[in-house]
Amino acid sequence: MEYETYISLQQLKIVVMEEILKQIGLTGYEIRVFLTLLKFGSLNARMVSDKSKVPYGRIYDTVNELRRKGLISVIQGKIKLYKVVDPNITIKNILEERKKLLTELQEKIDEETKKIKIEKPEEKLEEKLTITSGRKSILNTVMNFFDTAKKEVLSITTYEVSPSFLRHVFRAIKRGVKAKTIVTLVSEKNLALIKEGMKRGDKLKYYLVPGLRLAIVDKEKAIVSVVNPLNKEDRVNIMIDSKDFADSLANYHDLLWEKAMDIKILLKK
To answer: Which domains can be identified in the chain, with CATH numbers?
Structure first.
């Protein structure tokens, strides 16, 4: 059972990475090559083609474009090898550049709209993808999810939260929002909070999902957090404002929910 959980978690991480790469403008071939190099390390062109299933005739165009974007580098030798540049740095740089371009575009739109009469207010350009780090940022985001939810909030958490955090959960439940939480840890530290959550209407089940935190609001937007197992405060949080992606994560949550144990049974042991 734990092995199946690990595979599902790995698949989820791949889905998240694919969505990030798609959002920053990579093509399908570029995504497949990048993820292949990320998984296997340094490879030559033929090996990249074989493992990524990208046609060999398209490999050089693809790797050259990834080099141009700063996502991979070349190891010179008798046979050239390609490897991924640290994605934590390169993807952040691309997002910053994209943000800069969007800001410049917004400024140009502002200038042009001043020259003409418009009957409707212009829509703001919004980033669908936000990457943050640290525990505090995800807690604030999830509290906001509960404050703004209309129908449901699905989550995966250790339930090691503060009473003030739970107040946001309970207020949402009181408004009629359905809360379904997969708890990944039961200990003396969070036992009282779990019991209080059950008492106040939070539907809880237990399932081991190591290193992952997840929250989905109304199947419209979601946040995924990958936690450093050596330091719980150290984590990467990816928020995506996309109905399609949120719906996919909700299906993943439903799959785990079916496998999960009723937490009441666990508390009796």
So the answer is: 2-85 (1.10.10.10), 129-268 (3.30.870.10)
Residue 245 carries which side chain, given as an amino acid letter?
Answer: F
pLDDT interval class at 113 (50, 70, 90): low
**Residue 25: enclosing H or E segment and its boundaries?**
none
Query: Does this model's pTM top 0.90?
Result: no
Decide: residue 196, CB within 10 A, 0-12 exposed, 13-18 middle, 19+ buried.
Answer: middle
Query: What crossing angle do the helices spanning 163-174 and 135-148 adopt, rounded to 10°?
Result: 20
Retrieve residue 135's tokens.
Answer: 């525990």
> Which of 135, 173, 181 is CA-nearest to residue 156?
181
* pLDDT-based confidence at residue 2 (cuts at 50, 70, 90): very low
User: Going by C-beta distance under 8 Å and a sequence separation of 6 or more, which residues neighbour residue 8?
Assistant: 252, 255, 256
C-beta neighbour count of 36 within 10 angstroms: 21
Contact indicator for 129, 23 with CB cutoff of 8 Å: yes
d(CA 151, CA 144): 14
Hey, how many other C-beta atoms are within 10 angstroms of the C-beta on 50?
14
Interatomic CA distance for residues 104 and 156, integer angstroms: 38
